[in-house]
Amino acid sequence: MPTQNSHPQTPNSIIRCSWAGSDPLYIKYHDEEWGKPVYDDKILFEFLILEGAQAGLSWITILRRRENYRKAFADFEVNKVAAFTEKDVERLMNDEGIIRNRLKVNGAITNAKLFIEIQKEFGSFSKYMWAFVPGGKPIQNHIEKMSDVPPRTELSDQISKDMKKRGFKFFGTTICYAHMQATGMVNDHLLNCCAR
């Protein structure tokens, strides 16, 4: 998540988190998705793939390629991605619509296999993830300015550590926290934000 401290306002003076900027794609994502609780495994898997791809890049870079990722990664069908072969890896490495990083591509396939293992163990990936959150309810942070948003927390450390132990790739604590924000496990919208 980008950090700027200005408050972008539309002509009708709607206040949003500053990172939403003026890009219509970013504003739509901010208003309709970011911070909204997600319990659907398919969407959780989509964000797992996208957050892993984002490592070291800006989120808008990935957001602009989201539809390309949807096509490249079998509409985020976890069983299909888990079954990807070396031929699929080569196809993805030649796909200009996604980030062509072999470690990230292979990591996504590995993560798909591990995602399925978690589904088998816990009944769903959603149950696994939300079990980390106290009471299974979204954490409502009181963010007055974007600089108050942490890059990671003790909880993201804990989840990331457990997932790394299970073999997940590209899911360090900072990526984990971004995943928590994206899927509404934590609400980091500004207190005066229209999407809070």
Instruction: Tell me the fraction of residues in β-strands, as a range.
Output: under 5%
Distance between the termini: 16 Å
Q: Report the major sheet.
A: 2 strands, parallel
| Rg for CA atoms | 17 Å
Q: Tell me roughly what share of residues is in helical segments.
A: 40-55%
Query: Strands across the major sheet, in which order?
Result: 1-2
Q: What does the overall shape look like?
A: globular
Low-confidence stretches: none
Averaged pLDDT = 93
Element order, helices and strands?
HHHHHHHHEHHE
Strands, total number: 2
The secondary structure category is mainly alpha
Assembly state of the chains shown: single chain
Tally of individual helices: 10
Please explain how this structure is put together.
- With 196 residues, the chain is mainly α.
- Helix content is 49%, strand content 2%.
- The protein has helices at 24-32, 41-54, 59-63, 66-72, 78-82, 86-93, 102-122, 125-130, 154-165, 173-182; strands spanning 139-140, 186-187.
- It has a two-stranded parallel ribbon with strand order 1-2.
- It is globular.
- The mean pLDDT is 93.
Keywords:
single chain, about 200 residues, mainly alpha, two-stranded parallel sheet, 10 helices, about 50% helix
In short:
This protein has 196 residues and is mainly α. It is built from ten helices and two strands, in the order H-H-H-H-H-H-H-H-E-H-H-E.
